[in-house]
Amino acid sequence: MNTPLNDSALQQLFTEARTFSNWQDKAVSRELLERLFTLASLPPTAANTNPARLVFLTTPEAKQTLAPALSPGNVDKTLSAPVTVIVAHDTAFYEHLPQLFPHTDARSWYVGNDALIQKTAFQNGSLQGAYLIMAARALGLDCGPMGGFDNAKVDELFLAGTGWKSNFLLNLGYGDRSRLHPRNPRLSLEQAARFL
């Protein structure tokens, strides 16, 4: 039976969690990243498509390769983060459906339907990117998701020949809270929600 998370857990995941641009000089282990991958792979996607693909940049050399594709305002925060993840999606995700959704021929739903392929890959890959953020926070990591980069250049540098397409970048590590700005406002319930 599910029980609500306590206030401490909700603070870590939501109310006290922030987007970080400045990082402590503290490494993130390969073992923790593997645990993060496993945890983030479990929540739902449409027909268990699991189109997200992740490239973990953990070395200075990999970060320097990425740097020319970044907007100027994202260079320092990315080079100083212990890990940067290229959150991408696989446009041939449906080839894995015999393994991932074996009780019916789900692959046939997508073959030849490029509009559905692109929509499913982007929509569900984005959803998995959000799961990755929440899983990282649950494991004690801080996050700095960002756009502000040249997708075509990232795809050329890191994803050539894979059929994968970059969506967004996610810096991971242990954030420097002393350099945070106050949290920006959010829309109110009245502004952003309707009950019908």
Structural account:
- The relative contact order is 0.21.
- Helix 2 (30-40) packs across helix 7 (114-138).
- This protein is an alpha+beta fold and 196 residues long.
- The chain is built from nine helices and four strands.
Topology overview:
Elements lengths: L6 H9 L14 H11 L11 E6 L2 H7 L5 H9 L2 E8 L6 H4 L6 H4 L3 H25 L3 E5 L4 H8 L5 E10 L15 H4 L4
Antiparallel strand pairs: 1-2, 2-4, 3-4
What's a quick, concise take on this entry?
This protein is α+β, with helices and mostly antiparallel strands and 196 residues long.
Features:
single chain; 196 residues; alpha+beta; NADH Oxidase; four-stranded antiparallel sheet; 4 strands; globular; flavoprotein
CATH class descriptor name? Alpha Beta
| Total number of strands | 4
Q: List the total number of helices.
A: 9
Low-confidence stretches: none
- Count of domain modules: 1
Structural category: alpha+beta
The fourth-level CATH homologous superfamily is NADH Oxidase
Rg, Å, rounded: 18 Å
Neighbour order of strands in the largest sheet: 1-2-4-3
Series of secondary-structure elements, N-terminal to C-terminal: HHEHHEHHHEHEH
Domain Nitroreductase: 22-174
GO molecular function: oxidoreductase activity
Family: Belongs to the nitroreductase family. HadB/RutE subfamily.
Keywords: Flavoprotein, FMN, NAD, NADP, Oxidoreductase
